[in-house]
Structure formats: structure tokens, C-alpha cells
Amino acid sequence: MIVTKRLKYHLKVRSRLLITRVIYIDEFLNSIKVFGLPNHLICLKFGTPIMLLSNIDTKNGLCNENRLIVTKMAKYISEAQIITCDKVGIAEIIPRITMSPIEARFPFRMKRKQFPIALVFATTINKSQGQTLGKVGIYLSETVFTHGQLYIAVSRITSRAGLKILITNKDLKPQWTTLNVVFNETSKYI
User: Fold this and answer.
1) What is the three-class DSSP state of 128?
2) Which of 4, 45, 112, 158 has the most CB atoms around it within 10 Å of its CB?
3) Which residues, at least 6 apart from 35, have a Cβ–Cβ distance to it below 8 Å?
4) Helix, strand, coil share (%) of the chain residues, nearest 5
5) Using CA atoms, how far apart are residues 98 and 75, in angstroms rounded to an integer?
6) 44 and 62 housed in the same domain
7) Which domain holds residue 159?
8) pTM greater than the 0.90 cutoff
9) According to the UniProt entry, where is the signal peptide (predicted)?
């Protein structure tokens, strides 16, 4: 979104008995980056992989953390093709929605009307759980930290040829082995 003129926002801030008016300029409000709210400005082009940050239409595959590829863009809506879940290949419309951050560390309630998406060229092991992928690159700069996490990472792939793993130590030197964390207590009940 390009702002052509500077606007000032007047927000009422209430303290115990005193009401004051505070002025926040666009640059400050647009620079705020908090969990649960996409960045103010995102640059996209056709074919860019994105991830949804909110449930929009779960029945049609527009769920939080689903990945899509941008196919069309407009000012108030975008079209993207789903590349994960059981709705792979279906093109869906993504509207701008009003979003508000979960954490409240400001003396005002912040809302932004924007696309609930983020660029996604990489993902965590936990977010990849349940997905099937054609090519996977795993970067392990330290050992996995919980039972079954390494298994989840390597089992997302459809063929061994599409799997690449890079393991490094603290000095970023390549390694050939890593630890697989297994809790014996969990496997004795199977």
C-alpha cells in the first residue's frame, strides 16, 4: 500500500483520571511489527509462495498456515492457488481483512485492514507436519529438540531424490551426523 500524503492519527489514551490526545504518524504505525499481524508492506509477484496467517474459509482450504502460490493480484483481493492440504490446485480468492495483534503492549488498540498472508520460502518442522512435499531441504544448525521431530522432517518427502539435508555445528562447519531424540518411555507403550 502506498500512502501519498502524511496522515496523523489521533488516539485517546486514558490514564486513571487524565485523558490526553496523542499523535502517531504513519511511519511509526507502519513500522510496528508484532506477532499475529503481517508486515505493513509486502511485495509480491506472480508465482510467489505465501502462507495464510488466519482462517478465512476452512471448508474451501483457506486455513491458517496453508501454503498457496499467488496467481492474480488486485488492490482489495488476491487470487492464489492452494499447494497444501486436500484442496491442492484449487484457486481461491483472498480478501483483505481487519486484523488486530494479540499482544497489547501499546497504549492503544491497533487494527490493520490487510491481506492475512506472509511470504513463505521456508517453514519449521512443526508447521510442515501433515504435508506431503516433492522437494525438501532440511537445515539443522543444532540437534532436534523433541521426540519424533527428525522423523517428521524427513517423512514429508515423496521420494528420497527430493531430500537434501545440511547439518552444521556451532562454527557453521558441515557435519555428517546428528542426534535423533527418542524418549524410550513413549515407545514402550506402543
Assistant:
1) helix
2) 112
3) 101, 102, 103
4) 15, 35, 55
5) 15
6) yes
7) 125-187
8) no
9) none
